[in-house]
Amino acid sequence: MIEVRGLTKSYGDRLAIQDLNFTVNKGEVVGFLGPNGAGKSTTMKIVTGYMAPSSGEVRVGGFDVFENPIEVKSQIGYLPETPPVYMDMLVEDYLIYVARLRGKSKPDAKTMAQAAMEKTNLTEVQKRLIGNLSKGFRQRVGLAQALVGDPEVLILDEPTVGLDPKQVHEMRDLIQRLKGQHTIVLSTHILPEVQASCDRIIIINRGQIVAEDSLESLGKRMSASGQVTLKIRRKHEELVQSLSGVKGVMSVRRDGSGLDVSVDHNEDTIEAIAEHTVKAGAGLVELKATDLDLEDIFIRLTSSERSEVGREL
Amino acid sequence: MNRICTIAGKDFRSLITSPMFLMVAGASSLLMSYSYLRNLKQFGESTMMSAMQFGQEGGANIHFSVFMQHISITNLLYVLLMPAITMRLLAEERKMRTYDLLLTAPITATDIAVGKFLAAFGAGLVLVLLSLIYPLATRAVAEFSVTQLLVSYLGLALVTGTYMAVGVFASSLTESVLLAVVLGWILNLFLWFISQGAGFFEGSKFIAVMEHLSIGQHFASFVRGTLNVGSFVFILSCIAFFVFLTQRVVESSRWR
Ligand SMILES: Nc1ncnc2c1ncn2[C@@H]1O[C@H](COP(=O)(O)OP(=O)(O)O)[C@@H](O)[C@H]1O
Ligand SMILES: [Mg+2]
């Protein structure tokens, strides 16, 4: 449904995204995950035809965004970071206006506005001025705006940012319900968001894709990397050297009186480490094995000095 | 076409219900009432005098002594006030990020520029009609040529269209409504005084060209009540030019 090839964008001499390649299939829900400033919004602005890239190509439903902008834009519902709502309009009038901009006839526009309000639970505020609504409601009006006319593709840029926990929960529920009806690309800098809604995640950092996989297999690959913390009384330096030779150990780092060992997810490796340490007579007093969870991996993937794990992926 | 009407309709409604519009309409009708009634009274006194002196009626023409003054004053007011009406049209969209909606909707930059202009022009025409009420009401007490009056008002409507096109263009350039107003004034004044600048240069041909380019010359012929196709086309092309510039600016916002 969406094909992005070699997408690069620089603002002046500042490179925002660099050679992005990805595909989103029809009906998929894809999370676009990355810290602030990673280039998520920039990518979405280009895909929606809001902005032209410096180079590269975007196709939506077979149409090139720059050769056939009208065809592409009619297939996309877009919720930017700031909901594009007019404070001086009524919710209903605003949604009708959006439908009319999408070229719908007056009666159709009315029906579509109603449908969008029903999906986003806005019917009870339809006669209210948008300027008088709370931030959570405004965000929902923004989502309703993207839904007007049931576009094939939904592009949601940080749909829960700045909302309170209850509103975040409601927004996630709404997105969950849209699954299956649209192809959805959702950007976020918080992990639980993609865990809650996405089939597949694309992790982006400093304008480049650092990982791309389904949630399960990414999770598997992530738990495939664990950490063993050892506390020993003697021979620290010696062990840093010798432990690296143990099968399954990726790296060893000294941390005060302990050692941090990155390992694959295999109990044999942990056993081998324990055995090795005891044999070396290093005075083992503590051994703790932990799996990295998604959050740790995310931090590793997106932090500036990428760890072993990052390179591995 | 439909989408142009959608934008124009929505913005027209929001313009004429805005406090700024009501303020502009209120202030102009106050000033126009004052100056119009004063002119009319003077005209009445002078015709009475000439009637007594020469024993005949209609020594002076109400179109030249009253209406033309009224139209000039209206014009002056609108040069200054129209940018305040158009200032929000695109600047506010940028500032409030609703520009994103327009730029990602399946519409073209031309739809946006023309729609915004039509909204502004509609609001401008409401104000032109407001000014037309004064001379029309005078019909109750005096005889005059309505055609001549309407031709002058066609001229006023056209120059108002120019101020609107200029104002929308100014508004497209910036996020700041204040800057949009100031830019609007500068451009309007430039349109008016372009012929004045010609005086600095040698050569009567150049002056003639500059005078032709000055909107004032063309407006004046309308105000006298003569329908001149050249002037009509000139002012229309001014409008088209600024709408075109707006379209370029909107289109170029994709290339940042
Ligand atoms: N209009 C702009 N002008 C200059 N630099 C920008 C602009 N918008 C974004 N950037 C820069 O581009 C990078 C990516 O920004 P953005 O796409 O907004 O990231 P994200 O949405 O992932 O937080 C950032 O370094 C940001 O500072
Ligand atoms: Mg962003």
Q: Kindly, what is the distance between the CA atoms of the first and last residues of chain B, rounded to a whole number of angstroms?
A: 28 Å
Coarse morphology of chain B: globular
Q: What are the segments of chain B in which pLDDT stays under 50 over at least 5 consecutive residues?
A: none
Structural class of chain A: alpha/beta
Mean pLDDT of chain A: 86
Beta-strand content estimate of chain A: 25-35%
- The rounded Rg of chain A comes to 24 Å
Number of structural domains of chain A = 2
Q: How many individual helices of chain A?
A: 12
Overall tally of domains of chain B: 1
**Count the helices of chain B. How many?**
11
CATH fold name of the largest domain in chain A: Rossmann fold
Query: Low-confidence parts of chain A, pLDDT < 50 over ≥5 residues?
Result: 304-313
Q: Please outline the major beta sheet of chain A.
A: 6 strands, mixed
Ions, cofactors, ligands: which are bound?
adenosine-5'-diphosphate, magnesium ion
Helix content of chain A: 25-40%
Q: Helix content range of the residues of chain B, please?
A: over 70%
The CATH H-level superfamily of the largest domain in chain A is P-loop containing nucleotide triphosphate hydrolases
Tally of DSSP β-strands of chain B: 0
